[in-house]
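User: Predict the structure for this protein chain, please.
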Amino acid sequence: MNNTNVKPRLQWVDTAKGICILLVILYHTTEHIMDLCPAIRDMLRAARMPLYYTIAGLFVSVKNPKVFLNKKFNRLVIPFCFFVLLGDLGGYLTSIADGTDFTYFSPLYYAITEDTDRKFFNPPIWFLISLLDVYIIYMFIERIAKHAGKYDTLLKMALALLAGFCGIRCNRMCIDLPFFIDTSLTAIPFFIFGHIMMTKTDILKKNYSRHTYLILSVILIGIALLTANGDIEYYRNNIRATVFHTYVPGVLGSTGLLLLAKAIGSIPVITNIGRYSIVYLGTHYLFFRELKEIFEPILGPRHEIGLDVLTFSSTVVLSAISCWLLLKSVPCLVAQKDAVHFGSFSEKKG
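Assistant: Here is the predicted structure, written as structure tokens:
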């Protein structure tokens, strides 16, 4: 492939992804800090996953459906299967150390059942299948919206809200759909919001002053902190919050964090983490529980904040080491190179 056709990466987008995955790891590893700061906990519940969906919608384009789906299979399905098996390996090694029974999970079984017994060792990778759902749903929305002419954007918004309503209703009616489809329906408004924000506004395209981005970011994140309320668990589409508290802080928090990334531009460590955020998503959960068990008796019960900080930082470091090893050894399995191609077509067509 001719390298002259490869678009340069936008550093601020990788920074936004880095902020996003670090917030995910922070939420998973700092239970004591979250208990002490309920406003921040609620804001992270409301905005951390919506930020992921919003970022995914920024540059979505379906010019060639076959090429599009081929890329998503390599970027999402293959890493999902790999990290399921990596989680199985971690679970197997843990069971040997603990002398307990080990339960094997196939990728298909996990995607269909959503691991209802919570025995799976690497749950965060549910997001990869959910994001694939969202892309497929978007393909249908875009195809329908084309028939609306100049009102296509309004129709996209209406269909996104309808999908979100269906996802929320699944939660209210205790309906669990396989392959995380219920969660994906709930998340579609965030994805479409990111798409519309990038294609119909200039706020992320133009380079306004850093002070402008910072001021707007602080205002939006502040409002998100004030409006976030309720327990939102996207993994199981368990929305114990009103529709307002589900979408308003999610949209405002995501926008504020994107503007913060625009203001920052690039911070080498965070930007690099964002570039390989899928790897960090698929590896961090393999470490932090064992790390916490190691550090807890050393620090004692009076140093809970220190325990959280040490667990968080150690998890990030081990994930970085794992990322380096996986990129060197199996890049095709962690979304860095295409492993398979369906049909005889070139990526240039997409």
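DSSP finds 14 helices and two strands in the chain.
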